[in-house]
Amino acid sequence: xxxxxxxxxxxxxxxxxxxxxxxxxxxxxxxxxxxxxxxxxxxxxxxxxxxxxxxxxxxxxxxxxxxxxxxxxxxxxxxxxxxxxxxxxxxxxxxxxxxxxxxxxxxxxxxxxxxxxxxxxxxxxxxxxxxxxxxxxxxxxxxxxxxxxxxxxxxxxxxxxxxxxxxxxxxxxxxxxxxxxxxxxxxxxxxxxxxxxxxxxxxxxxxxxxxxxxxxxxxxxxxxxxxxxxxxxxxxxxxxxxxxxxxxxxxxxxxxxxxxxxxxxxxxxxxxxxxxxxxxxxxxxxxxxxxxxxxxxxxxxxxxxxxxxxxxxxxxxxxxxxxxxxxxxxxxxxxxxxxxxxxxxxxxxxxxxxxxxxxxxxxxxxxxxxxxxxxxxxxxxxxxxxxxxxxxxxxxxxxxxxxxxxxxxxxxxxxxxxxxxxxxxxxxxxxxxxxxxxxxxxxxxxxxxxxxxxxxxxxxxxxx
Length: 464
Ligand SMILES: [Zn+2]
Fold this sequence. Notes:
Elements: E1 2-4, E2 12-17, H1 31-40, E3 45-47, E4 50-51, H2 62-65, E5 72-74, E6 76-80, E7 84-88, H3 100-109, E8 113-116, H4 124-127, E9 137-142, H5 143-152, H6 167-175, E10 181-185, E11 199-204, H7 209-218, E12 221-224, E13 229-235, E14 238-243, E15 248-252, E16 258-263, E17 266-270, E18 277-287, H8 294-297, E19 317-320, E20 327-329, E21 332-334, E22 342-350, E23 355-356, E24 362-371, E25 375-383, E26 392-399, E27 404-414, E28 416-417, E29 419-429, E30 452-456, E31 460-463
Parallel strand pairs: 2-3, 3-5, 4-6, 8-9, 9-10
Antiparallel strand pairs: 1-31, 2-11, 6-7, 7-8, 11-12, 12-30, 13-14, 14-17, 15-16, 15-18, 18-30, 18-31, 19-29, 20-27, 21-27, 22-26, 22-29, 23-28, 24-25, 24-27
Zinc ion binds at residues 19, 21, 78, 187.
């Protein structure tokens, strides 16, 4: 019997995230800001993988922020055609934009590799189709999909990306004998998501692009949402896993069959010889989104009433300043990238009893946009701080010349004590009565609470 596995390298373990977006496509931050953000979160390297579009230069600006040995920035981009694939290590777009096999091939020819992104809603046929031939791995977690799915649910199309996990699909593909590494990435846009949730711990001799690329291609890394493996060892027919912060270690194989599960930080699995493959995962009870509480997501009581039945004030939502703590809310809708000439947003607001505290303060309703051309930006803000105490109607019209990908109306209350209530919020295109905002539903406030920290090894292939 022989156990084939990728954990044979030497060097140090480096923490990286290789899926995120900057203002070069539809992200909210520029490249140096992303570098600073992730460095501040304890990461060692990133790949800023902007969406491929005419004129995108994936390598532009990297030399200014890549500091080998300190913090590495890899080149790459996200290709879209029948799905999304990250081409890591690619410094230029393929000749034919939108041809996925060509993109995957071009990345490989530059010494890079490709990953199927957020595929949790994919069928096995789709994921294994010719379109994605040559990928090196798939995202088994995608933080923004976890977050958006649970905030907006199926009403806004996020059902298609399931909950941000693709472990079942990964096992199906591995069970077919495919050699695919599992990656954990954020897909951070700086807009409606949380950075630093997902990560890849890569073992490499050097903290620099080519060494990290080659370690990931070999599979000498593990995917994680916070659990940290201290040891991944194979000896005498046993796989031994130690994690410094796990509560359970589990070994499983084809089609997700669980072979063993133990409590604690260490697990040892004696290989039988007929498993096909074995992989390990470790879990604890630490919540992934501890700072996203029900109160700071959306107010609950009766849900959030959009402009459908007229303002009553009975099922309004309420933001509680709580002594100056920032609260916010978002309403989203994909607008099919068509450019409306103008958008009008507004609603009913009651700001009774607000008391301003020292420091920065803001009480506002604003319209945000996400576009491929300009990233994420606020396009219009209505200051609510001077409104009278009774319910008032506010409205603003904003002319546009962007290809809009998503829009959001955000409520922001910071630096105040007291409450502000919103009702009948709306967003309309010129000449149309349709409300573009989508009502989020919060039947279960614990939806984001269910996610806890985990880590996943790559598969150990068992040759009987
Ligand atoms: Zn992306």
